[in-house]
Automatic annotation (TrEMBL):
<dbReference type="GO" id="GO:0071555">
    <property type="term" value="P:cell wall organization"/>
</dbReference>
<keyword id="KW-0964">Secreted</keyword>
<keyword id="KW-0378">Hydrolase</keyword>
<feature type="signal peptide">
    <location>
        <begin position="1"/>
        <end position="23"/>
    </location>
</feature>
<feature type="active site" description="Nucleophile">
    <location>
        <position position="106"/>
    </location>
</feature>
<dbReference type="InterPro" id="IPR044791">
    <property type="entry name" value="Beta-glucanase/XTH"/>
</dbReference>
<feature type="glycosylation site" description="N-linked (GlcNAc...) asparagine">
    <location>
        <position position="110"/>
    </location>
</feature>
<dbReference type="GO" id="GO:0010411">
    <property type="term" value="P:xyloglucan metabolic process"/>
</dbReference>
<protein>
    <recommendedName>
        <fullName>Xyloglucan endotransglucosylase/hydrolase</fullName>
        <ecNumber>2.4.1.207</ecNumber>
    </recommendedName>
</protein>
<dbReference type="InterPro" id="IPR016455">
    <property type="entry name" value="XTH"/>
</dbReference>
<keyword id="KW-1015">Disulfide bond</keyword>
<dbReference type="InterPro" id="IPR000757">
    <property type="entry name" value="Beta-glucanase-like"/>
</dbReference>
<feature type="active site" description="Nucleophile">
    <location>
        <position position="102"/>
    </location>
</feature>
<keyword id="KW-0961">Cell wall biogenesis/degradation</keyword>
<keyword id="KW-0052">Apoplast</keyword>
<dbReference type="InterPro" id="IPR008264">
    <property type="entry name" value="Beta_glucanase"/>
</dbReference>
<keyword id="KW-0732">Signal</keyword>
Length: 283
């Protein structure tokens, strides 16, 4: 009897463990992987996915599903110490072709003790010269932080933890990533030619492997049903479908711009000698 009870309680414990693990086993269920990808569980049963960059390869995961509008978030813990030359990303894209749409959050690594830069960008019909880049107000490698993209037919919103840092608005007469379904991607790659101080500081392979960890992925998003048929959307879509920033949230965007902005395409006269893109002068 005592033995039977113990066996039973072990069985229950195993079942509970399996249930909590599967509740947060997002990687293989929702994504395909490429290159160096490792999946583990932390002590809370939460799946932690690591992308690893060594001299042979980087790593990536890409959603099986395409979405048309949604709120996408993930927690990330970036490469500690020397991450110069590396690029770590969380982004949406409609594909690789010309005329593609894309929404990016990319972390450009740096030498030990030098600040990482978060590049946000929006591509519409293949045009992606719309970067806002920020330094962060914390060390993104010391702990997990939540990075969120809200994409609806009114604007694209970027958020770091609870703070909004950018809203890219839609104007009826200007390009906007509005029509093409996009998949979700996370990547870690060698961006030596570009990432750090305009490519001056390269990846130092003596410090490899470089590891980035992701956990707590969430996509609250609509999926397209094919030509002209309505989207399937989860319950409670209103939470993000009509989301635009309120006055207080525009305040955090202004705070981030004032204190942490590293680059704003709307201020790069060298790059746009014939005048800035039209949205730069609208508000
Ligand atoms: C890296 O550090 C240098 C020096 O502090 C800084 O100028 C640069 O903006 C930092 N970030 C990147 C991505 O180069």
């Amino acid at each position: 009897m005592a033995l039977a009870r113990r066996v039973l309680s072990v069985a229950v414990a195993v079942a509970l463990l399996a249930a909590s693990a599967s509740a947060d086993s997002w990687l293989y269920e929702k994504f395909t992987t490429d290159g160096n990808v490792r999946a583990d569980y932390n002590s809370q049963g939460q799946q932690v996915t690591s992308l690893i960059l060594n001299q042979q390869s980087g790593g990536a995961f890409s959603s099986r599903q395409k979405y048309l509008y949604g709120e996408f978030s993930i927690q990330m813990k970036l490469i500690p110490r020397n991450s110069a030359g590396t690029v770590t990303s969380f982004y949406l894209t409609s594909g690789d072709g010309p005329g593609h749409d894309e929404i990016d959050m990319e972390f450009m690594g740096n030498s030990s003790g030098q600040p990482v830069v978060l590049n946000t960008n929006v591509w519409a019909n293949g045009d992606g010269k719309k970067e806002h880049q920020f330094y962060l107000w914390f060390d993104p490698s010391a702990d997990y932080h939540t990075y969120t993209i809200i994409w609806n037919d009114k604007n694209v919103i970027f958020k770091v933890d609870d703070l909004f840092i950018r809203s890219f608005k839609r104007y009826a007469d200007l390009p906007y990533p509005g029509g093409k379904p996009m998949s979700v991607h996370a990547t870690l790659w060698d961006g030596s030619y570009w990432a750090t101080q305009q490519g001056k500081v390269k990846v130092d392979w003596a410090d490899s492997p470089f590891v980035v960890s992701y956990r707590g992925y969430n996509a609250d998003a609509c999926t397209p049903n094919g030509d002209g048929r309505p989207l399937s959307c989860p319950a409670g879509t209103d939470r993000w479908m009509n989301r635009q920033l309120n006055t207080a949230e525009w305040g955090t965007v202004a705070w981030a711009k004032k204190n942490y902005m590293h680059y704003d395409y709307c201020e790069d006269g060298w790059r746009f000698p014939k005048g800035f893109p039209a949205e730069c002068s609208r508000h």
